[in-house]
Please model this.
Amino acid sequence: MSDRLVLLGSKGGPALRPGGPWPSSSLLEIGGRAIVVDCGLGVTRGLVDAGIGLKALDLIFITHLHSDHVLELGPLIHTAWTAGLVTPVNVFGPPGTGHYWRRFCQAMEFDIEIRIVDEGRPDIRDLVSIDEFGEGQVVEQRGLKVMALRVDHPPVTDCFALRFEHGGKSVVFSADTAFFPPLADFAEGADILVHEAMLEQGIERLVARTGNGARLKEHLLASHSFAEEAGRIASDAGVKRLVLNHLIPADDPEIGEVDWQAAVRKTWAGDLTIARDGLVVELSGWKAAQGEGTA
Ligand SMILES: [Zn+2]
Ligand SMILES: [Zn+2]
Model:
């Protein structure tokens, strides 16, 4: 298995629109591990489409508890269980992740109990362990090291950027954040920085379409980054490749890849990928497998 990043869902926010991309989830394959980062709606389908057998589900990280990052966590694990999962799954998430998981199992109690008795499955509640983390080192096992940095995503206080390191390679996810200069130190020298991004000219139209105008705009400006700001972090960190992800807006027909590139090129001159659902970024060789997304 070659090391790679697959952007399963590339839009910011939980709403779906016809023909549009899906909310946040990514697959990071590094050092023989298949790691899921965030579980927005569509993560299960995305993993299957990326060729991942759900029985092999192993490590899941959640950056924060906004629904576009966690809504499908329970359904993913439950579906893996019905696909034959018998090995432990370790979920790392912010405080509150354990509460979500216990309540999910309660909501699905009828189905869980009946499959254990009727189909002889192991108890899903015994297969899953939840580790709630804060800032600092999250885990170090089998050569994989994961660090967390609290970022600026009001009113959510437990929102964490994540840095994955294995065998001299490193991939950093910004999570959802307003422009946050300490991220540059945290991402220093990373092979890939996956940073969220907004495009100024798209915000007005997005707000008009969604219908709760001023409040939504206020939230976006206070808690997310413009593409230019993501480029600034990438430049200050000296990363090898910047991936713009969690795009806002993601499904505006008047906004295309050239618009994202024009914005981010003001602050970032290095290798660049604009995320699309299913896009693969190879970790060894620095080539995106599907050319169009790269510039
Ligand atoms: Zn989000
Ligand atoms: Zn969020």
Remarks:
- The two ends are 25 Å apart (CA to CA).
